[in-house]
Amino acid sequence: METFESLVRTEFAPKNTYLNTASSGLLPARTVAAMHTAVEAAAAGQPTDMFGDVEASRASFARLAGVPVGRVAAGASVAVYSGLVAASLPAGAEVLTAEGDFSSLVNPFHVRGDLKVRSVPLERVAEAVRPGTALVAVSAAQSADGRVADLPAIRAAAREHGARTYVDASQAAGWLDFTADAYDYVAAVAFKWLVCPRGVTFLVVPEDLGGLPSLFAGWVAGERPWDACYGPVEELAHSARRFDESPALFSYAGARRSLALLEELGVDAVRTHDLALADRFRDGLHDLGHQPVPAPGSPIVSVPGLGHRQSGLSSAGVEVSDRAGNLRAAFHLYNTIADVDRLLDVLSS
After folding, report:
1. What ranges in the chain are assigned the alpha helix state H?
2. What are the residues facing 137 on neighbouring strands?
């Protein structure tokens, strides 16, 4: 039986010290192979069953998210799904967001123009929910600095005041102890911590579909898609599939394998691994006299004032991000203690 370490080493072989999963995760070998097969088969006129890959990906994500598969829509963009949620709100509805949250989550509410969008510091979101708040939209983990939202408190406050909840899990799905069933809507791109190709995004909706309009419903949103290719779709899917975007099929051919790998490894094991490395880096930063942004329980570490080191680190073979002047490092399943120590060594020079 393969161990966590042996399975990871089989699937990943980075040529540098890659600590930038918060931007984009590395692809497993099985995913790369599946995409090669799909592309070559399409070139030969013998395409593989990539719609089957979409359904397998949907089912795998549903298991990882802890929801029935019928509540999961498959698409390509959080911004599109945020726009769908925004379109479901009546004019004048209040939307509560966290200050500085990721644009793909919050911008669709602003561009409507007839919604009342109110932003507060992340730590105050739960206490800021009030009578009349229609929706609370927040990232589970902040892209800029890794801070983790107090989702149970936000959920409780929203329920107390009759508000719906919309969580962007793009920086959390794949490592956070998180069950999507606790929230009304959950969206997540899969090319970060879920180590899928770009072009894969999921949306979780309530059992009653949450009152979302099927604004961009094409033939894939039909209850019987292959009978819905021409003219108006007479019967939309009875499940969340009515919110599917026409899928990026080659990406889903790979996503199926990436998500299966995460199921094999187990999110609990991934989280333990990731957080241990992040904590080691935080300890090392303190020894060097640097204070990271407080983000306990997060594999994303942001260091104020060090963003300018990103270019030099890249030249030294260490990949991190520069976000608003902060150096952002992200530790995931393919990283090792040696990666942490390499980053600290370069920073100390």
Report:
1. 4-11, 29-43, 50-65, 78-87, 103-111, 125-128, 151-160, 249-265, 267-287, 310-315, 337-348
2. 97, 166
Token digits of residue 66: 């802890």
Distance CA 201, CA 56 (A): 14
Instruction: Determine if the pTM surpasses 0.70.
Output: yes
- At 105-135, the pLDDT tens digits run 999 999 999 999 999 999 999 999 999 999 9
DSSP 291: -
pLDDT tens across 29-40, in order?
A: 999 999 999 999
User: What interhelical angle do 29-43 and 249-265 show, nearest 10?
Assistant: 160
- 166 strand-pairing partners: 137, 185
Q: Are 194 and 25 in contact (CB under 8 A)?
A: yes
Give yes or no for residue 1 having a pLDDT over 80.
Answer: no
